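Rotation project, supervised by the postdoc (A.L.). Task for the rotation student: set up a whole-complex structure prediction and record inputs and outputs verbatim in this book. Inputs entered:
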Amino acid sequence: MAQLKTDPESTTPVAVDALYAEADDWHVNAGGQTIHAKRITGRWRTIKWAMASVWLIYLLGPYVRWNGQQAVLFDIPNRQYHLFSVTVLPQDFWMLSLLLLFFAILLAVMTALVGRVWCGFFCFQTVWTDIFTWIEERLEGPPAARRKLDAAPMSREKLKVRAIKHGLWLLIGFLTGFSFVAWFTDAPTLWWTFFTGQANGAAYITVVLFTAGTYVLAGFLREQTCFWLCPYARIQGVMLDRSTIIPTYDEHRGEPRGRVKHEEGGERTSGDCVDCNQCVAVCPTGVDIRRGQQEGCITCALCLDACDQVMDKVGRPRGLIRYASLDELEGRRTSRLWLRPRVWVYVLILGLSLSGILYGLTSLAPLELRVLHERAPLFVLQSDGSIQNKYTLKILNKTHESLAVRVRATGHDDLTLVGAEQPIATAPGGVTPATVFVRIPHQALKAEQQPILFQIEASRTTGEQAATERESVFVGPKPRPD
Amino acid sequence: MPLLETTMADHDLFPGENNTGHVWDDNIRELNNPPPRWWMQGFWLSIIWVVGYSILYPTWPIGDEPTPGLLGWSQIKEYEQGVERIEAKRAQFEDQIRNLTADQILADPGLKQYTLASAKVLFGDNCAACHGSGGQGNPGYPVLADDDWLYGGTTAKLAETITGGRQSLMPAHKAILTEAEVDTLAHWVVQMNETGGEGGSEAGWTLFKAKGCVACHGQTANGHVVDLPNGDFIGVGAANLRDGIWRFQPGGYESARHTILYGVNQKDVPETRSAVMPAFAEPAGKLSEQDIKKLVVYVHSLGGGM
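Outputs recorded:
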């Protein structure tokens, strides 16, 4: 940062000029310049491919079968979400909020510990762009050749190369969209219905949007997405701290930069950085890591590979650019991972949300009961002198079979349950409403309100008993003061 | 000195700085930082989109009506199509209901559920104003959620009530009975109500029978002229005096006395009780036979159907 100084005596407004100088210094690529990054091999490149392969789950996951059905199927028309042998209904969706909390905190904890690893290694924008540029390099050659081709006038050869490239990009875009849709419908069937025009309209629209989105975002917008579209890049500043390790240029070691000279016995006057610019050449977002932590850096660590290769060649130790924290760089003592309170808080939240999800998944009851107490009227006096309350039972049957549900009500010795003499037939995977009445003789009522417990149970074909209960209230007239 | 002083780019005081050539107060200048390219492209695309939209959809307010648009879309048309779709879905249920009696609908859980949902609107439009949103009644208007029925709570009787309406009559006894007799009868009604019909005084019973109350309120004062073996009854809408449910609020001695003195629906008695239910069937009312059938099922299920 430029130092801002104002001298009241001086007629030269130093502060303003410093601001302009800085603005001029920080050139921003607003999309006018295509980044053609050099691809090199190395340790981080390998790790990057390994991490990116997580996305194979997204592409291949829909084809995994489980008990003759699609293992993971988000069946939106039927409001049923199948996860292997578990079926989750919209009523269980509180678990989704815990899942979202888990991943949100996971993102925060990873960023706090090791920076934007999500951006650099896992984000679909990064991974798909990486694959798109890999195709580009196969077809058009290294960065210099690509720049030359960009500048060249259209020719038969250029047209051919470009057509193949864009065709492949669109194909990947299509596969991306198709795989997305496949999570929501039977995947093998989709391959048939999609190409015979029988698939759902929403499927076609989704595939078209995904194809276009992937093609534009990974083919053209690329790092511009990270710069201008993604909010995460903007909020990362509050997640990092002094002990976060991120790809860092060790300026104490590197500066001042200088070309390798044949030293003649004497001491070297320059630092380890030989100013070869390889770290910039390999950067997929076109930033210069030597300018420190910046918004454009997605921490993909490819510059580490580039710099290490150069250091090997010039015979200097590796790690001029390395994963390091600000504390380490400034020579402060770095605290151990488990001594940082932040880590404990994050781990606690992660543990709580995860155990909530596990609890939810293991305690999915086959039956669920909601009881709505009628409020207009709260109660009526019957001609036999009893007080009657009306209840709507909402019975959710989460099993795959029709269940005959028996209803009981307890809470008062003299109560009569009317309307549930016969078991209530409930359809699988849905809510069945039923109206019941509870009557209690007026004289037997001691309080204006009292709890009533509704219990339901049903026998499954497996012989198991499914049962659940729910408390409601019985309301009567105010007892006479006597 | 002008507030805004600009210098042209050809004598730029800060050459090579990527400014627009606009300089204020000697050294404040406007740098040329255009929005990201994708943003500008989106901006132009959205303008193109507006042009396309205005050709396809109603847009320009020219004359009384906006330009119709090539697609011929309108909000009311979309609404009508939506209504058509929902009517088509309902048709299968409506057709089944048309050929069934109210009792048959009540016996079929699926159809009953449909009918209740459908009749909720009818009840709200036609019945709730007097009888309350849940049939909880209002002063002067009977509760529909209990099992105390002046004219009977079977589906047939309910249909009859909604179709033709009801208007009962009770003579005013101010000129017929002495003040003491009215007092005795009013107390007797209160006793009967509070004890389930067991605690009425002898004097009251004697008057009840001698003065002709029995003709409408029935031998046992339960409001039934003739009890039928199937549990139903023949009646003229007289109140059941044996249960704790009062036809006219707030109930108790004063209410009973007032009703005895001035009667119900007496033309020439200004203080008389008013108890009129209008006819709801076409053409006098506005409900079709199908609507009434649904309402019968609804009212029957409120809590007191017989």
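Student's summary: Chain A touches chain B through 33 residues (CB under 8 Å).
Supervisor addendum: The first strand of chain A starts at residue 65 and ends at 66.
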